[in-house]
Amino acid sequence: MTVVDDGSREPEGRHGTANRGSAKIPDRVQPRVRHNDYSVLQPPPLGGWTPTLDVSVVIPAFGETEKLHLVLAALAAQTYPAHLLEVVVVDDGSDPPLTLPEIKPENTRLVPTAPGLWGSANAVNTGAAASDGSVLLRLDSDMLVYSDHVESQLRWQHIADYLAVLGHKMFPEFVPGLLTPQQTYEAVREGRAAGLFDRERAGAHWVEQVIDRTDRLRSAGSSAYCVFVGATGSVHRDLFDAVGGMDPALILGGDTELGYRLAQAGAVFVPDLDSSSWHLGNSQMRLRRESGARYRRPFVSNRVPLFRERRKIHGRQWSVPYIDVIIDSGGHRLEDVRVTADRVLAGDMSDIRVFLVGPWATLGAGPRTPLDDPELDLRLLRETYRGESRVRFVDEPPGIDRSVPFRLALPAGSLPTPRALRVLTDTAESEEAGLVSVVLPHAKSGAAPHSRLERTAAFARARHLGATEADIDRVVDEVYGVHWMDWAGSFVDDLAHDGPAVPCDWPAELREAQLEAKRQRARADRLERKLRWLRRLRTPGIWRRVFR
């Protein structure tokens, strides 16, 4: 039950402890979850299975020693095998420094954060780097868990390695001094954790409403990541490392941003409701919700393109764009590339990034005949967009940026409408498609080209499940779906001139046409009324004056 460890020894390297559990799920075909419908996964019953994966419970902590000691006492009474469980408590600059209590899991360590760094995100990264488990379970220092809390989450992690499992919690009123670590340990060990507080008076978390209305997140689609908000949740270490861990620049909102990047890497979000925990008192975000939301909004908006508050703002550019647009420029005329790029840049979606792919490195600076230069179109194209901050010149198609939700490939000479990008992404969302393809009308660059809008999360999951470039579209179809749409409404058939396209404001043109039609109807009404009046007149002199 107890281990003497003052935290003075050096942390062991990752996966460095001998005789720990298997570092991976046993080799087999991973189950393929479509969207976020994890119904195909069937976890074993609690107490009716044999765990093999080792888990590291990482606890970022700052002060509140009493709560931390109760949390560690509850962890000491877990049903998960003790030899597969380690706990790393990260002291985030507490004054006085934290100490470990007598009652704690057998393998518990206390490590400090690096000097000059602070915040829960940095503390979680510190704990992850100092730990050894194949699975990371982040637990806040005020989370008193039921005896099967760790076991319940780890059942899912044994089935698939791309799951983000969210633990259940309740918010009781916490009275200091009411519980001792010994009382907590005994209650949890004996299965009486649910009676430690009044469940009827305990507050629920807002994520429960989302979980309820989305069939336990199975129908949540691309928004499932929103509920992965820290306190208690687990992922495989490989997945945590693949997304780069938590962003230490985010003092608040880092859990939401991590959930987004996990989703972009193909993760499936699972709420584990078979066990629970007590959040000892209200969290800061519950007590000061409006202030917290005001603080988080700009930080999360810059990093999470799918953030609801950001999607309400138009005409802005952000640190992470909503779409990467790739246009093949090599071997194409300036006019053909420009007509496509201009339409994209002048469209109604501004948070984009455009990559012009071509042999830019071959452009020399030596003497040449300007008008007969074989690389003239490339030079003119580079100069055309030299001052456009949203345009990048690359020699090869850029690697996939997992932070960007969508990636659109457009052939040079295609003519997207001002709303094309919005139509394509809205279609991807409404159809929940991983790939949206459009067969384009005949364009200047050749016959029957087509565009591809790829959802980053769908292709990331397909690759994680072993898809190759030869069959990745088929696997994407399995895990998300492929949607083909007609070009009408998002692309124009052709241009009547060879110059660059001048994007039309279709809504404004429609309003103008409607006003003109209204004016003509009013004029026709006036003429008709005048004609009826003239027909009623029988005096020949009146008719002579009218005709004159």
Automatic annotation (TrEMBL):
Compositionally biased region (Basic and acidic residues): 1-15
Which residues does the UniProt record annotate as the domain Glycosyltransferase 2-like?
A: 56-183
The UniProt family comment states: Belongs to the glycosyltransferase 2 family.
Organism equals: Lipingzhangella halophila
Instruction: Name the keywords, alphabetized.
Output: Coiled coil, Glycosyltransferase, Transferase
Name this protein carries in UniProt: GT2 family glycosyltransferase
- The signal peptide annotation in the UniProt record is none
> Which segments carry the region annotation Disordered?
1-31
